[in-house]
């Protein structure tokens, strides 16, 4: 059975990002996959400390002992990843970017030490929500996500960008976006 990990980078419980990710994971389950959600705001981890990467541990991961190791483990066992984030100041949320920055150890292991940490290729999707209608905000967040996915051997498969949603939970009044999130997840649950 395929295992799909949803990563929620929003600090807001019950918000637009969470609603869309929940629909995507429902679609993945109905396509026959098992799903699990990681809420970054519920984890306890520090930002990238940089000096740690001169001494990544034996498995090529971070030497900092915090909840990021849960994320490393979940991504390692996943067949696909759905990353969901609100747009803050034209990019990914701080929680999402902080998680991505902590994968610098994987980048060092892969590109400087020729050690592949996540050797099984996975598929990835990105869900973004913003209050404004600025395409460049989506493009900036997508660029960062593509770099992250490349580092962890994830092929960028699907995206869903939702503009004009600021009020908490307002996306629930938009059946087309909910359907698109569901279909994104269903696609991710079917892929080989």
Largest sheet: 6 strands, mixed
Whole-angstrom Rg: 16 Å
Q: What's the number of domains? A: 1
> Any idea what the CATH superfamily is called?
Flavodoxin domain
Low-confidence stretches: none
Helix and strand element order: EHEHEEHHEHEH
According to CATH, what is the class?
Answer: Alpha Beta
- Based on DSSP secondary structure assignment, what is the total number of beta strands? 6
Here the CATH topology equals: Rossmann fold
Helicity level: 25-40%
Backbone structural class? alpha/beta
Helix run count: 6
Task: Tag the structure with descriptive keywords.
192 residues; alpha/beta; 6 helices; globular; 39% helix; Rossmann fold
Verbal overview:
With 192 residues, the chain is an alpha/beta fold. The protein has a single domain, classed as 3-Layer(aba) Sandwich (Rossmann fold). It is built from six helices and six strands; from the N terminus they run βαβαββααβαβα. It has helices spanning 16-30, 68-77, 94-101, 104-112, 135-151, 175-190, and strands spanning 3-8, 34-39, 80-88, 91-92, 122-130, 154-163. Strands 1, 2, 3, 4, 5 and 6 form a six-stranded mixed sheet that branches.
Describe the protein's topology.
Layout: E1 3-8, H1 16-30, E2 34-39, H2 68-77, E3 80-88, E4 91-92, H3 94-101, H4 104-112, E5 122-130, H5 135-151, E6 154-163, H6 175-190
Parallel strand pairs: 1-2, 1-3, 3-5, 5-6
Antiparallel strand pairs: 3-4
Helix pairs in contact: 1-6
């Amino acid at each position: 059975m395929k295992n799909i990990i949803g990563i929620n980078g929003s600090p807001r419980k019950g918000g637009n990002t969470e609603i869309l990710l929940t629909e995507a994971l429902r679609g993945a389950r109905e396509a026959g996959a098992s799903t699990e959600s990681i809420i970054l705001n519920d984890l306890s981890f520090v930002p990238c400390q940089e000096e740690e990467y001169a001494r990544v541990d034996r498995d090529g991961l971070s030497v900092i002992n915090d909840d990021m190791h849960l994320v490393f483990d979940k991504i390692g066992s996943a067949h696909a990843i759905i990353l969901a984030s609100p747009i803050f100041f034209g990019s990914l949320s701080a929680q999402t970017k902080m998680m991505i920055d902590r994968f610098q150890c994987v980048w060092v292991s892969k590109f400087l030490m020729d050690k592949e940490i996540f050797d099984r290729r996975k598929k990835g999707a990105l869900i973004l929500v913003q209050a404004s209608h600025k395409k460049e905000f989506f493009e900036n967040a997508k660029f960062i996500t593509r770099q992250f996915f490349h580092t962890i051997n994830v092929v960028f498969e699907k995206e869903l960008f939702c503009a004009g949603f600021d009020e908490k939970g307002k996306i629930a009044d938009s059946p087309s976006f909910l359907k698109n999130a569901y279909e994104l997840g269903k696609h991710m649950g079917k892929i080989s």
